[in-house]
Specification:
By secondary structure, the chain is of the alpha/beta class. It is built from 13 helices and 16 strands. The site of pyridoxal-5'-phosphate has 14 residues, from helix 5.
Length: 428
């Protein structure tokens, strides 16, 4: 029966996977709404939106239709010296929903490249102006992608250690908490004024890969203001938080002060196709306008602004224009508040964090990393056996559901988490 898994094991090298010890992957044959179906006919609730990318459910008919129409018209064309309708329309529509200071759209093809583009824009912005500013400030625990620039500005970990000699130095700041607020703002101001800083980059409100760590919009607002007062470029990495995850279209919609540069990907195409976007203010854009060729932004990818991917993004934006999508997002936000209350009572829960449609349950453990691994090896198969795809980050279980998920499926997931927490008590 498990034919695909077997063929896979002979030819495929999977991401983030120790191939020597990994279990056979589950072969998914099709998706529909919040569900995925494997080759043996098992049905799973996709509670993590397939690595946080899916927004409106799998195989969405409206996105499928728009993509099919585009495929029959133009699948791809070089984007230097040429343009096409889906790229222009998508740029127009994104600039309408992004903060008003955003004026230019630069395309790439995933989240890491959207971040690389932002970093290169920031460094070259200063270089074009003839001003020496070459440092990046980022948060502890940050995750901005897996390419070298993105790794450099992310938290150093076992994921980046083989490459540490090749990563550039970055100034790190702690993420805001209620306890460190005053001290943090003081240290941050001092740092910003002292060093030659090109840009400050952050994942607004939620640090996804760090384990869904959350922090207050208010303090971030103050930090952005400090950067603005010191004319330092501000980059919002909304690759994960964009497109409704925090309850608003962008996490930056919770802020008064807006970034100069935005990075988007993941939910951009509704989770259908790879596409990256980096947007910039007029000021950033103008720093590259010159009769001097050296000031050109020399960056591009073969599949920059792929028309099919842009069409998928346009179709996804159509669905965001529907009232029912926002009703659903609101419903999920409310349902997760309920779940948070229900699960908080478990003695096994160390902390529960909630922002919009993102819920994270941190499980109380001892300190040993071995236990972390054991826990993960228990949690993932436990939920799979219940027909739920949850992929814990260490001792953290999190939900990032597609917006079409039903309340009864959320109730079912809540019950499964409850019973999982009870079993953990027994195991001790
Ligand atoms: C996932 C992620 C990235 C990297 O995106 P990829 O498409 O996986 O390269 C960058 N920044 C944040 C905040 C992310 O969550």
């Amino acid at each position: 029966m498990k034919d695909l898994s077997l063929r896979d094991s002979k030819v495929i090298w999977h991401p983030y996977t120790q191939m020597k010890t990994a279990k056979d992957p589950i072969a998914i044959q099709r998706g529909e709404g919040a569900y995925l179906f494997d080759e043996n006919g098992n049905k799973y609730i996709d509670a993590i939106s397939s690595w946080w990318v899916n927004t409106h459910g799998h195989a969405h008919p409206h996105i499928a239709e728009k993509v099919a129409v585009q495929l029959n018209k133009l699948e791809h064309v070089i984007f230097a010296g040429f343009t096409h309708e889906p790229a222009v329309e998508l740029a127009e529509r994104l600039l309408k929903i992004l903060p008003q200071n955003q004026k230019r759209v630069f395309y790439s093809d995933n989240g890491s490249t959207a971040v690389e583009v932002a970093l290169k824009m920031a460094f070259q912005y200063w270089s074009n102006k003839g001003i020496k500013r070459n440092k990046i400030v980022s948060f502890n625990n940050a995750y901005h992608g897996d390419t070298f620039g993105a790794m450099s500005i992310s938290e150093r970990s076992i994921f980046t250690s083989p490459f540490s000699n090749y990563l550039f130095d970055v100034l790190k700041v702690e993420i805001p908490t209620q306890e460190n607020e005053l001290e943090l703002i003081g240290n941050f101001s001092e740092l910003i004024e002292r060093e030659d800083i090109a840009a400050f980059i952050f994942e607004p409100l939620v640090q996804g890969a760090a384990g869904m760590l959350m922090y207050s919009a208010d303090i971030l607002d103050q930090m952005i203001k400090i950067c603005r007062d010191n004319e330092i470029l501000i980059i919002a990495d909304e690759v994960f938080t964009g497109f409704g995850r925090t309850g608003k279209m962008f996490a930056s919609d919770h802020l008064r002060n807006k970034a100069d540069i935005f990075c988007l990907s993941k939910g951009l195409t509704g989770g259908t196709m790879p596409l990256g976007v980096t947007t910039a203010t007029e000021d950033v854009y103008e720093a590259f306008l010159s009769d001097d060729t050296n000031k050109t932004f020399f960056h591009g990818h073969s599949f920059t602004a792929n028309p099919v991917a842009c069409s998928a993004a346009l179709a996804s934006l159509d669905i965001f224009d529907r009232v029912e999508t926002w009703d659903n997002i609101k419903r999920i936000c409310e349902k997760l508040i309920e779940m948070k209350e229900v699960l908080s009572s478990s003695p096994r829960v160390k902390e529960i964090r909630l922002t919009g449609t993102i819920l994270a349950i941190e499980i109380q453990t001892g300190d040993e990393t071995s236990y972390f691994n054991e826990l993960r090896n228990f949690l993932f198969p436990f939920f799979i056996s219940k027909g739920i795809i949850l992929r814990p980050l260490g001792n953290i279980i999190y939900l990032v559901p597609p917006y079409c998920i039903s309340n009864s499926d959320l109730d079912y997931i809540c019950d499964a988490i409850k019973s999982c927490l009870t079993q953990l008590d027994f195991n001790e």
